[in-house]
Amino acid sequence: MRFPTLGYVQRLYDFLRRHPTWVDSFWAVFLFGISLASEYARDEPRGTRTEAVIVPVLLLLCLVIALRRRMPEKMLLLAAALGVVQLAVDIETTTADFAMLVIVYTVAATGARWASRLALAMGLCAAPLAQLRWLNEDTNALGNVALMILQTVPFALAWVLGDSIRTRRAYFAQLEERAARLEKEREAQAKVAVAAERARIARELHDVVAHNVSVMVVQADGAAYVLDAAPDQAKKALETISSTGRQALAEMRRLLGVLRTGEHQEGGEYVPQPDVEQIEDLVEQCRGSGLPVDFKVEGTPRPLPSGVELTAYRIVQEALTNTRKHGGPNAGASVRLVYFDDGLGLLVEDDGKGAPHELYEEGGADGRGHGLIGMRERVGMVGGTLDAGPRPGGGFRISALLPLKPAH
Fold this sequence. Notes:
Among the domains are: 131 residues, no CATH class; 120 residues, 2-Layer Sandwich (Heat Shock Protein 90), CATH 3.30.565. It contains twelve helices and five strands.
C-alpha cells in the first residue's frame, strides 16, 4: 500500500537536491531572523555608529550562507572582510558569525586550494582575534587562553571535516574514472577478441571448405570425363568425392563443436585437430585426386606444440589446394618437412603456372587470395616466418619456419 504523503516528501527532497541554493537561502533567512532578534534582546547599549552598521553586517553574513555553494571563494573573502569590519567597528560576536564556521567548511570541501588554506588560516585566527578584541576581564589569563582554544576547535573541526569530504569525493571520482576506463578497456579487448575469433573461424572455414571442395570438384570433373569410357575410374572418383565429403563434414562438425563449447573435443561426434602426422594422409589424398606430390621428411620427428602442428598442416593443405587451382593440369608438387632443434621448417613447391601476382602481393580481389592471408596470420600467431612467391624456374613456392616457442 502506497502512502501519497511519502510521494510528496520524495518529490520535495528531489527538488531540494536539485536546488541547493534555495535550501541555503532558507537557512540564511532563518539565521538572519534569529540574529536580529538576539541583537535587539541585548541589555548592553551600543554606540550610534555600531547600531548603524550592525544590520548590514548581519545581512551580509547571512548572504554568505545563501551563496556559499555558488560562490564559495567570494563568500570566504566577504566573510573575512566582515570579520575585519566587526573588529574595527566593535561589533561583538553575534549569532550570524556562525556563517564563518559554515563557509570554512564549504571552502574546505568544494573551494579552490588557495581558498581552502585561507579558510584554515582565517578559522584559526578568528577566535584569538575576537578574544583579544573583547577580552573577558572577569576571567584570568589562563581562562582566556582556554576559552580561546575552545572557540578555535570548532573552526579546525569544520575545516578537517570539509577537507575529508573533498578527499572522499576525489577518491570516488577517481574510482568512477577508473571504472569507466576499465569498462572501455574491456570493450576494446572484447572487440579485439571478437575480431580475432572471426579471423580464426574464417581461416578454419576457408581451409576446410576450400581444400575438400577443390578435391571434390576435380574428382567430379574427372568422373564426368571418363564416365562412359572408363566406368571403373568414374566409380573410384565418386568414392573419392564421397570420402572427401565425409571428411569435410567431420571437419565442419569439429569446428562447430569448438565454437559451441570453446574447447577441442575428442571422441564422439567431433574429431581431433589435424597434426603433422596427418600431412602424409593429406598428400595421399591429393595424389588420389590426380596431383603428383613428392613428400619427404628430414630430421627426427618428435611431438610439437598443438598450435605448430595445426599451422603446419593448414599451410601444406592450402599450398596444395592452390596448386590444384592455379598450377594447371600437368602440375606436380613437392612437400618437405624439416625438423630443426628449435623449430619446424616447411617447403611446398610446384612446377605449374603459378598464382596470379595480385593474389600473393595484394591479398586478391573479389574475395580471392584469402588463403595466403590466412597462412600469414597462422604463422604470425605461432611467432614464425612465411615466404610465398613464384619460383625462378616457374611455379610457386611457399616456405615457412615455425619455432617451437612462440615469440614474446
